[in-house]
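for the record, two folds in this file. i put them one after another cuz i was lazy. first one right below, seq on top, structure tokens after. the second one comes after a little note so u can tell where it starts
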Amino acid sequence: MNHNTPLSPRPLHHLADSRRRVMTTAQLRRHGVPNTEIGDQCRPGGPWQQPLPGVVLLHPGPPTSEERLHAVLMYAARERTTGVPEQPGAGDTPPPAYTEAMITGLAALTLHGFTSAPPLPSLDTFDVLVPRLRRLRSTGCARIVRTATLPDPQQVTGVPVAPVERALADAVARLQDAGLVRRLLTEAVRGGHCEAVAVVRELNEARLLNRPHVVNAVDSLVAEGRAIAEDRLYQMVCEHGLPDPVWNVDLRLPGGPHLGGLDAYWPDQAVALELDTRAPRQEDDAMWSEYARKREHLERLGITVVHVTPRKLRNAMEQQAAVIRTALMAAADREPAAYVVVLPR
């Protein structure tokens, strides 16, 4: 037997027509390809190439966007320590499991289906989210983004992707184009990907709300989120047979102080509904205190206050309708509420 006979492509023949032709050097070694052979195959003009440290593309041409995504993840993921060789199925390679790594930023938004995000081939680098203490550096088409706590990834076409709100924050952190920032944030809410409050929370945690072009976009985002939530509220009243309230009103005591604005009010039953579309920001402690004060004041007057979030309206509309219906029915068993003046807001 000639021990100098190249080991490839014989041991990797089953990969020649596979969906993915990207492997780590550790995977290749488990397939019986030694480091010297990997180096020979990856020489200039050779049949393979090494786009990232420890990652090999098993063909000489330009990588596809899918191959670049998996190359970035293979570079950033924590290598599994199992010594059991992979057993490919007939005609294809099983999707790899990536540990402690996921695509984020603009590439993640594109994978989530954002039409305002650029197509993958136009991106020179892909952001990949990893734990803060991982010893990795940005190189080639892989840009490392660190976090103290990894979110749970979502699988999109076999690729682990950061949730929309986290991907948005990572994308916005690198964007100076105010128009693109606004379009991305608006699409996140208008497209039903996530709630405005969740987006603003991530932006706040990323300390991005001190940038003027981000703050301006957030103001539009909150308004967009409120408009969508109001539409769902109207839909809930109509579709679930609730009595019509008076919409968008202010309450006052006769000849007395202003009690606050409400999104809906059933005066006969003294039931008030308020949408919570507040965006958490560092300076909002006073606003939260004011909200609690208003609610306590109304309840002391005998007015039942129902608190609804946009997420609850989107994900559990029937349940929220039942809560309101119960409050309306319970009005007959309560002491009459104080008389208040209802004014259009």
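(here's the note) second protein begins now
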Amino acid sequence: MSRTAPGPEFWDLIRLHTGDLADVRPTPRGFSSDLTALVESEKGRFFVKAMANRPGGRRDSIVRERLINPAVQPISPALRWHTENDAWVVLGFEAVEGRTSDFAPDSPDLPAIVGVIDRIGELGLPPVAHDWPETRWNRFAAHPADVSLFQGEALLHTDINPSNLLVGDGNTWAVDWSWPTRGAAFIDPACLVVQLIAAGHSVESAESCASDCAAWARADPKAIDAFAAATSRMHRAFAERRPGVQWLGAMGEAARSWAAHRGVEG
């Protein structure tokens, strides 16, 4: 078995839940985790996600992911165990057989992608999320009054992207619930629209896909317009802050084209 970083004390911490380890296969960590790995062990196969136990937003995100998991099953794999010490916070999820989804215009994954976004919209707001209002778009709103259009009582994932939607045989999962919030139900389908445009869809095609989500169909078009403008400003700010990062530039251009299509200034 190959054990990459972290050190032996980490594996000792999780051994109570895993038993003896047979294999550890690190997976891409993205921006939010210090370790993600598929673990084969005496007590089963787990997807393990860990964060350094330091105060701040990143620790808060993994705590939110633990707290929200009971409310988002079976859309998300079940959390089987969690543990922490002074150095680490660790989550052990059921390991599912799935692959990263394909958002391209001709992708056979599109019905499953839209379907899982629609299923998220059907979830009720659990009590634990009541005090997690969505605020990230507020400072990018064109007018102060637009902020109220982003508020609501829906449970939101918000980090919609191909890596966070896994497609398997007969099932699709939304993973990485690192920052679930309470807000307007159309926001997750709207986030999907920007991702689809960035993946090569026309704006019309992307919005057509989103229209199969009940939350999008029920939304006030003026609220979507305001959100498109705020999203364009948000992604432009991100791209300007890190001009050498290609994917940020692509998201900025996708959001700009969406705002232009809806006739709003982003």
